[in-house]
Amino acid sequence: MQGHVKVSGAKNSALVIMAGTLLCSGDCHIRNVPLLADVERMGQVLSALGIRLTRNGDTLDINASEITTSKAPYELVTQLRASFFAIGPILARLGVAQMPLPGGCAIGARPVDLHVRGLQAMGAEVQIEHGICNAYVPGSSGRLKGAKIYLDSPSVGATETLMMAATLADGETIIENAAREPEVVDLANFCNAMGAKIQGAGTSTITIVGVPKLHSTEYNIIPDRIEAGTFLVAGAITRSEITLSSVCADHLFPVIAKLRDIGVRIIEEGSDCLRILPAESLKATDIETLPHPGFPTDMQAPFMALLTLAEGDSLINESVFENRLRHASELNRLGADIRVKGNAAFVRGVPMLSGAPVIGTDLRASAALVLAGLAAEGKTTFQGLHHLDRGYDRFDLKLQQLGARILRVSEASTNVELATSTNNSPASMTT
Ligand code: EPZ
């Protein structure tokens, strides 16, 4: 492969900033929004709440002056965990919210206890019945109160839910042990652009002083660091020279450091461009996923695909989610040598992978399997394209433009397959 990739806006910023527009009783223009099924779904959740929303290219025009109901639609919220984060803004605006529990998914149970306990600390009464989180703020004002909140673990979603709720609360809120992810900072910057008073985002202690109202604004979403990291791995695993633009290298520091650690050459060009150069060989390394600024759990699966071809033994420890190693068995179908024990994967490098039919189990596992298919000898058929379309903006098209032989079988069903091969073996796909 060879060429240039334009990285899209960050999925995990766009989704929570869309929820954040519920805090504003005016117009919000959000730019650099990626084209994703999850963004589409979040738009449906907002519309069901009475929000006016239109998409013009990569811009979303949202007006939340009228929230016509405090009850989010069950079937949409259970499909999109990020929509649960809207409980913070809805409660802050209306003093009442009925939010279905998001439920678990392929990578884990995905509880929301930290979100709930934080809202209770801010004065909300919360009962969970029949899979619905019923929250309301007692008292005549219906307004949440500022509180000092300690998060048992630096949960991204809980930090975001509580930070949004606190922007309209009465008084000051301090969130200790807060998540430090770039998407949390992006959300804080968006809220401050609406007139919120948030300080310390990006550190473990975030302070929010509540204000009565938030005003209209326009905002640009940051580039997607996980999409950028995925394309860096695509370049490394196929020994290609590719450039990525609109990338914030600081957001990718742990991934760039580990790629350099295994022998990949990455050059930072200008303020927002990265160039990856082919490496003669890849060395094994150990990875432990951690909250930011540690190695991101969302890059664990793509990086595992890369380490299957490194020289030597690598140890990967998935410490954030309890069930996020399921792609190992599918990578083994492509000829990898991976043994999983609990939350640890022992990856013994092999000289080559060979094409086979594989099935994606979640978003990042699916990306990992496509990347492995790019490097494999012969044809790989991948099933589970609906996972990819949730979180990667035109992933197969961007890879095709780099020269990968990858083909979406048909638009007939959402669960289509695609095959990948960069060598001259026939690329064919089946559904
Ligand atoms: C966000 O999920 C991201 N999603 C995830 O990206 C990402 O993997 C994750 O943060 C970690 O970085 C969005 O931003 C939409 P957490 P979130 O709360 O907020 C436990 C992707 O592929 N926990 O930081 O749900 C939880 O079980 C997705 O783009 C509680 O115990 O993640 C997990 O073990 C996948 N109680 C750990 O914390 C809670 O109340 C981290 O979860 C909340 C979380």
Question: What report would you give on this structure?
Answer:
It is a single chain. This protein has 431 residues and is of the alpha+beta class. It folds into two domains: 201 residues, Enolpyruvate transferase domain (UDP-n-acetylglucosamine1-carboxyvinyl-transferase, Chain, Alpha-beta prism), CATH 3.65.10; 206 residues, Enolpyruvate transferase domain (UDP-n-acetylglucosamine1-carboxyvinyl-transferase, Chain, Alpha-beta prism), CATH 3.65.10.10. Helices cover 30% and strands 24% of the residues. The chain is built from 14 helices and 23 strands. The strands form six sheets. Strands 1-13-15-14 form a four-stranded mixed sheet. It has a four-stranded mixed sheet with strand order 3-4-2-12, covered by helices on one side. Strand 16, helix 10 and strand 17 form a beta-alpha-beta unit. Helix 1 packs parallel to helix 7 and helix 6 packs parallel to helix 7. The C terminus is likely disordered. Ligand EPZ binds next to helix 1, helix 5, helix 6 and helix 12.
SSE class? alpha+beta
Q: What is the helix content?
A: 25-40%
Strand content: 15-25%
Secondary structure: number of strands: 23
Keywords:
single chain, 431 residues, alpha+beta, UDP-n-acetylglucosamine1-carboxyvinyl-transferase, Chain, 2 domains, four-stranded mixed β-sheet, 14 helices, disordered C terminus, binds ligand EPZ
Write a brief structural summary:
This protein has 431 residues and is α+β, with helices and mostly antiparallel strands.
Please specify the SSE layout and strand pairing.
Layout: E1 2-6, H1 11-20, E2 27-31, H2 37-48, E3 52-56, E4 59-63, H3 74-77, H4 87-94, E5 96-100, H5 113-121, E6 125-129, E7 132-136, E8 148-150, H6 156-166, E9 172-176, H7 182-193, E10 197-199, E11 205-209, E12 217-220, H8 225-237, E13 241-245, H9 253-261, E14 265-269, E15 273-277, E16 287-288, H10 300-307, E17 313-317, H11 327-333, E18 337-341, E19 344-348, E20 357-359, H12 363-375, E21 380-383, H13 385-391, H14 395-401, E22 405-408, E23 417-421
Parallel strand pairs: 1-13, 2-12, 8-9, 16-17, 20-21
Antiparallel strand pairs: 2-4, 3-4, 5-7, 6-7, 9-11, 10-11, 13-15, 14-15, 17-19, 18-19, 21-23, 22-23
This protein binds ligand EPZ.
The site of ligand EPZ has 27 residues, from helix 1, helix 5, helix 6 and helix 12.
